[in-house]
Amino acid sequence: MFFKDLKKTFNRLFSLKINNKGKNNIFHIPQSAYLRKVRIKIYGNNNSVILGENVYLHNVHIRIGFPDCPVDNVQIKIGCNTTFNSADIQLGESKSSLIIGENCMFSFNVEIACSDTHAITDELNNLINVGKNTLIGSNVWICKNVLILKNTVIADGCIVAQNSVVTKTFDEKNSIIAGVPARVVKRNIRWNRKRPQEMLNNDL
């Protein structure tokens, strides 16, 4: 048991790299979290990254702010039992947030861009592309190569199909969302982490 715990601690120390360029930034990472090739970069003050119990992060890059444009009071929260296979997460506006629920499953090459990297204005020079809050509910399955853009909502129990681009609010629970831009293509579905063949075997 001692060597098992020592190995887990070693993996946590050498698989997590934090670049903290600010003050009063909070990192809550429970002992039950599994982290592998995780990088967190924060430029600014009073920001937080909060992970729930048994979160699994593999090859995940989290960025809050930019070296030339720090931000403050940003929150990232990832719920218990949520898993990532590879993802890039970016927040670039102060007082913005990314909230992810429990028991979510993120596949490979997922990008969550909660902010744009350059400004867009109207004809009166008013900024029109501010990133505020992005919300992903519980028990959501995000498939491979999905792009989730700023100020979007994905309701509980949904699946976002491979190669989709999420650009708006989806408040219908238990739906399949697909396309560029994404839209609801099927309703009243359920999913779990079992393989299809496991489900077939249970019916035999």
* Amount of helix: 10-25%
Q: What coarse outline follows from CA principal-axis ratios?
A: globular
CATH homologous superfamily identity: Hexapeptide repeat proteins
Gyration radius, to the nearest Å? 18 Å
Largest beta-sheet characterization: 13 strands, mixed
Q: Strand percentage, roughly?
A: 35-45%
Q: Any idea of the CATH topology?
A: UDP N-Acetylglucosamine Acyltransferase, domain 1
Describe it:
The chain has 204 residues and is mainly beta. It has one domain: Hexapeptide repeat proteins (UDP N-Acetylglucosamine Acyltransferase, domain 1, 3 Solenoid). Helix content is 11%, strand content 39%. Strands 1, 3, 5, 7, 8, 10, 11, 13, 14, 16, 17, 19 and 20 form a 13-stranded mixed beta sheet that branches. A hairpin with a 2-residue loop joins strand 19 and strand 20. It starts with a helix and ends with a helix.
Briefly summarize what is shown.
This protein is about 10% helix and about 40% strand. The protein contains 2 helices and 20 strands. Strands 1, 3, 5, 7, 8, 10, 11, 13, 14, 16, 17, 19 and 20 form a 13-stranded mixed beta sheet that branches. A 7-stranded parallel beta sheet has the order 2-4-6-9-12-15-18, with no helix packed on it.
